[in-house]
Backbone:
């Protein structure tokens, strides 16, 4: 049965920017100060839960890239490789980058639309940091951040949305405009090398100062729910159009995705977006959302190597990727 | 080392990346890294806040950032936001509007943290962890002062 509401919100994310008072920001800090910040942050967290510390200069290129592919670290942290570290909880829902743009960038990512839980989780991290460290704070400016755009709450709440209907009908701009009174913005998700990656959009708050954490989370949620409602209508319209080209494209993509012997990462990204669209419109067999979301991370080249424990060549990776996709999608 | 993309600028870091379906360690200059979407562009919102000819050259006592450097590179540490408060204000109003910080996290404000630390201190004493107790005690003193 077709359920037009499925495959809509991939994940929810809340991130905090925090700094320790009176220690230079990462771009200006000494290696000694950097090491001491890493120690301080790890000590503050490890008494509150099961956390592991990874210093980037102790990791291989492949390990760094895999962390990056799984959105646990950013390239900006890799740029600061000699002073940067990441602290992860055991199930990797919480990631705390140390010495990126700010001393501390903590994020919680959860599947589906669950910004509130992500926010509750990150609040615990915040409390642990604030009780153990002298976090830079000003009554008027709120939490002090390296870049003034993050001042105030230092909080960015976001949801990753899959919007094939609205994006095919070119309707997103219109909706965002009609919601301009709300503190939320919508951006297309572009891959590196600025190739758009399959109908994915990031909804997040615009500003961080002068709005409470709770208001900010509610605003982002309101925008997400509005988009979700309009996306269902857009999907209905596309179904009613019965456009042979759209249908053909979806079915071909599904065919290749589930039958190919070799798949590159880029091919996987674009084929899986079409297949996901097919699943939500009912043109192709349904795909378990969680399985597909896991696949999106697991098929990335460095993660294939790290999880497979083998140092594949490019061609071997493409073969392994196709095999993994087949295995995951065929036992629904 | 030269940037692998433009071949002209000096590379500022090496980025492990999936480039044309190959896993490589790309030496990149800042410009190409931004252009390819690998890193965020470094935007300094405080550019131009320093007016040449200003008689006094203020310096942040904590990170030694001068007013001129502040205008070029932005804040060097949290204290810079106090030292250069007057020239920062208009920039912040431009970004966020003329607003003050609002929060729903009143529990993270000073008093509550001290209370929570005092509880942790008692717990540390109870389990004879004196080095931890000393650390918490110092932290409480620092926050009270
Ligand atoms: Zn270059
Ligand atoms: Zn300073």
Residues:
């Amino acid at each position: 049965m077709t359920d037009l509401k499925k495959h809509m919100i991939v994940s929810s994310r809340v991130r905090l920017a925090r700094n320790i008072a009176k220690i230079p920001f990462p771009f200006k800090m000494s290696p000694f100060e950097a090491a001491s910040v890493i120690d301080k942050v790890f000590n503050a967290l490890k008494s509150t839960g099961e956390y592991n510390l990874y210093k980037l200069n102790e990791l291989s290129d492949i390990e760094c890239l895999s962390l990056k592919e799984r959105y646990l670290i950013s390239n900006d942290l890799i740029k600061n490789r000699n002073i940067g570290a990441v602290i992860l909880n055991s199930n990797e829902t919480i990631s705390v980058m140390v010495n990126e743009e700010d001393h501390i960038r903590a994020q919680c990512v959860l599947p589906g639309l669950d910004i509130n839980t992500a926010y509750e989780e990150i609040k615990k991290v915040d409390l642990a940091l604030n009780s153990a460290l002298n976090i830079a704070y000003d009554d008027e400016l709120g939490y002090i951040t390296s870049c003034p755009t993050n001042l105030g709450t230092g909080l960015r709440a976001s949801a990753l949305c899959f919007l094939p209907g609205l994006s095919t009908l070119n309707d997103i701009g219109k909706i965002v405009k009609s919601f301009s009174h709300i503190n939320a913005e919508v951006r297309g998700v572009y891959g590196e090398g600025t190739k758009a990656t399959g109908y994915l959009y990031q909804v997040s708050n615009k500003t961080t100062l002068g709005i409470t954490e709770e208001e900010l989370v509610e605003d982002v949620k309101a925008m997400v729910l509005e988009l979700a409602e309009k996306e269902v209508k857009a999907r209905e319209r596309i179904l009613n159009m019965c456009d042979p080209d759209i249908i053909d494209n979806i079915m071909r993509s599904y065919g290749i995705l589930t039958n190919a012997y070799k798949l590159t990462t880029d091919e996987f990204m674009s084929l899986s977006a079409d297949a996901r669209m097919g699943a939500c419109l009912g043109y192709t067999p349904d795909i378990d959302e969680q399985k597909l979301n896991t696949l999106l991370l697991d098929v990335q080249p460095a993660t294939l190597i790290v999880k497979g424990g083998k140092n594949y060549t490019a061609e071997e990776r493409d073969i392994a990727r196709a095999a993994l996709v087949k295995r995951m999608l065929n036992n629904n | 080392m030269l940037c692998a993309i433009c071949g002209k600028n000096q590379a500022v870091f090496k980025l492990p990346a999936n480039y044309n379906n190959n896993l490589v360690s790309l030496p990149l200059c800042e410009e190409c890294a931004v252009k390819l979407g690998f890193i965020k562009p470094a935007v300094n919102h405080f550019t131009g806040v320093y007016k040449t000819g200003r008689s006094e050259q203020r310096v942040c006592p904590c990170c030694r950032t001068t007013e001129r450097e502040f205008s070029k590179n932005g804040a060097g540490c949290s204290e810079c936001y106090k030292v250069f408060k007057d020239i920062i204000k208009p920039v912040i109003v431009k970004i966020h509007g003329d607003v003050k910080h609002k929060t729903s996290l009143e529990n993270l404000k000073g008093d509550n943290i001290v209370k929570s630390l005092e509880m942790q201190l008692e717990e540390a004493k109870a389990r004879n962890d004196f080095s931890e107790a000393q650390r918490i005690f110092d932290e409480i003193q620092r926050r009270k002062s």
